[in-house]
Design goal:
The complex is a heterodimer.
Chain A lengths: L12 H4 L3 H22 L2 E3 L2 E3 L4 H8 L1 H33 L5 H13 L2 H11 L6 H6 L20 H29 L3 H9 L4 H30 L2 H6 L6 H11 L3 H35 L1
Antiparallel strand pairs in A: 1-2
Helix pairs in contact in A: 2-13, 3-13, 4-8, 4-10, 5-8, 6-8, 8-10, 9-10, 10-13, 12-13
Chain B lengths: L1 H37 L23 H7 L2 H34 L5 H13 L2 H14 L6 H25 L3 H9 L4 H29 L3 H7 L7 H10 L4 H27 L9
Helix pairs in contact in B: 1-11, 3-6, 3-8, 5-9, 6-8, 6-9, 7-8, 8-11, 10-11
Classes of the chains: A mainly alpha, B mainly alpha.
Chain lengths: ~300, ~280
């Protein structure tokens, strides 16, 4: 490793000043975001004047049944979507872990969804899951001949909370698969192939080798994927915004409170709740991982 | 026994091949359909009850020529280009010096700084967009290019610093030492030695920033609304609300993704160009 710092002992202000503009910009906006979020949440508009401090906006949001629905939906969205992202990423990573002809071509193909803007993917799903004559309906009705009929009547995909959020999740998972795949793939390539061979020599079948050798060694990358993906799931906005307009998640609720109702105070309260959810998830996840690590090390 | 294990082996192989085919289809089929819709004639979309064909009856570029015959559309592309270019300029102006310092000097609290940078990106856009829009309204920057450029710079800056930092880090310290020994000062070392060597990484950061701004939706939507200044993503959203023909939606989508796909492919190549290889002997 080459020494990259020419003067490692002492750093003087005349050397670090170029850092200042960017730091001021980022920290400044961070402070603005924090101050405004808290300020807006703790005030409300009354006849053109702003009353601060007040818990009225908070109370109004918490007593609004739509907020409760959105919170439950978002929690379910995270709980279902995160394992799905992990499974999809693991599937692609395990395919690429093998050596085969055209492996690089396939790898390139697997990365494409990342290059498609989320809004475009959402638009595409909007078209494909159209009711009643979209491609997916026609396909599942068996009208293309090469595929058996699974449905008897077309499904109105965007017309029910379950399907609308389901296709939003599908879009999110489709677009973000490559990220999970890359993290898992780098974890996989760090595993010494000799371990794999040693297990084979000792008579472990493929399944045992995957379950007992590869997966335990993959736990750091898996936990990184789960943590990062669950945060992304909480944050999700574009897919439900385009595909599940009527069935709000926390993200889309913020948008409709702000743009449709012009209620920036309530929107800020929901935004704070969203940030809180992410922090709680991160904390819970890290604590669980710590407990797991301790118990595993004991054994 | 032998025949049995042979059969098991070939079943395994078939399953393995099938899983590759399924994965590839799962990724390629939607893209194919997007492209198919973009070149569909209207008879292939309004089929009057018959199933939509998997290949258009009469492939046509009419959706594209229609879009480009609309003068408003040129304005939209122009807006997206202006915002993306200015975002690149501003992010690089702020980010490159910071990346240089973080990549070349032992700054106290460097770890905390980098952790802070990552957490900025973990903060939900949909939560930070409310305070930032409110702040920009106060500054009377809502519905302006400047407002969106400020917001997009905020989004891009952490990436520019990260990518730029590793570009500066990868330059061997010896080079800088040699330049110093030969009497070069701080500025000329930066502009004559380090900057040219970091250029591929910085170019990658610039392209990344451009694309980030080009396909950004949330901040553009809140700050510009569906008002006078429309970007390509807002244009697509606006069209989506009025249920236009699907071939038109697909054509806009293709135009929106094309630069991203092309540059992502180029970017991979550019980033792997080992410019420092062999520069120190």
């Amino acid at each position: 490793m080459t020494e990259v710092w020419p003067n490692p002992k002492h750093t003087r202000i005349h050397e670090v000043w170029p850092l200042i503009p960017a730091a001021v910009y980022l920290v400044g906006f961070l402070v603005i975001v924090g101050v405004y979020l808290l300020g807006l949440s703790l005030s409300f508009e009354k006849g053109g004047t702003t009353v601060f401090p007040s818990m009225r906006a908070v109370g109004a949001v918490f007593s609004n049944p739509e907020f409760g629905h959105a919170l439950v939906r978002t929690t379910l969205f995270v709980l279902a979507g995160t394992p799905l992202e992990l499974a999809a990423g693991l599937f692609l990573a395990l395919i690429l872990y093998q050596n085969f002809l055209f492996r690089n071509v396939v790898r390139g193909l697997f990365l494409i969804p990342l290059a498609i803007p989320a809004l475009v993917t959402a638009t595409l799903l909007f078209i494909l899951f159209d009711y009643p004559g979209g491609h997916v309906n026609i396909f599942l009705l068996g009208k293309y001949g090469f595929f058996p009929a699974i449905l008897h009547t077309p499904v109105n995909w965007r017309g029910s909370a379950f399907f609308a959020l389901g296709i939003s999740m599908l879009g999110k998972v489709w677009r973000d698969m490559p990220i999970s795949m890359l993290i898992l793939l780098s974890g996989l390539s760090a595993i010494d192939p000799e371990l794999f061979d040693a297990a084979r020599t000792m008579g472990a079948g493929l399944r045992a080798r995957i379950w007992r050798v590869v997966l335990p060694l993959l736990i750091p990358s898996i936990s990184a994927v789960v943590l990062l993906r669950s945060i992304e799931m909480w944050k999700e906005f574009i897919f439900p915004f385009i595909l599940a307009g009527k069935y709000d998640l926390l993200g889309t609720l913020i948008e409709s409170l702000y743009n449709d109702w012009g209620n920036s105070n309530a929107a800020a309260v929901v935004a704070l709740v969203l940030v809180l959810c992410i922090m709680v998830t991160t904390f819970l996840f890290l604590s669980i991982m710590e407990i797991l690590r301790r118990t595993l090390v004991k054994i | 026994m032998r025949i049995g294990s042979f059969a098991a082996e070939s079943t395994k192989k078939a399953l393995w091949a099938a899983s590759i085919v399924i994965a590839v289809l799962f990724i390629v089929a939607p893209l194919y359909l997007l492209f198919k819709y973009a070149i569909s004639d209207s008879a292939s979309i309004n089929t009057g009850g018959a199933p939509i064909p998997l290949w258009p009856f009469h492939p046509t570029f009419r959706s594209f020529t229609y879009l480009f015959s609309d003068s408003q559309f040129y304005g939209v592309i122009f807006n997206s280009l202006i915002i993306a270019s200015c975002t690149v300029g501003m992010s690089m102006l702020l980010g490159v010096p910071a990346a240089y310092v973080l990549g070349r000097f032992r700054v106290p609290g460097r770890r905390a700084l980098l952790l802070g940078l990552i957490s900025v990106r973990l903060f939900p856009d949909i939560a930070s967009v409310i305070p930032i829009t409110e702040f920009l309204i106060k500054l009377r920057l809502q519905n302006t290019y400047t407002g969106v450029i400020f917001a997009h710079t905020l989004l891009a800056l952490p990436y520019v610093i990260f990518i730029g930092m590793s570009a500066f880090e990868s330059i061997p310290g010896d080079l800088e030492q040699q330049a110093r020994v030969m009497g070069a000062g701080g500025f000329s070392i930066f502009f004559r030695v380090l900057f040219p060597l970091a250029l591929p990484g910085l170019a990658a950061a610039a392209i990344y920033t451009f694309l980030l701004s080009w396909d950004e939706f949330i901040f553009a939507y809140f700050i510009l609304g569906l008002g006078k200044i429309s970007t390509l993503t807002l244009f697509l959203k606006q069209k989506l609300a009025y249920a236009p023909p699907q071939n038109l939606l697909a054509a806009i989508s293709v135009l929106l993704s094309l630069p991203v796909i092309v540059f992502s492919l180029l970017l991979q190549k550019y980033m792997t160009a080992g410019i420092t290889a062999g520069s120190v002997k």
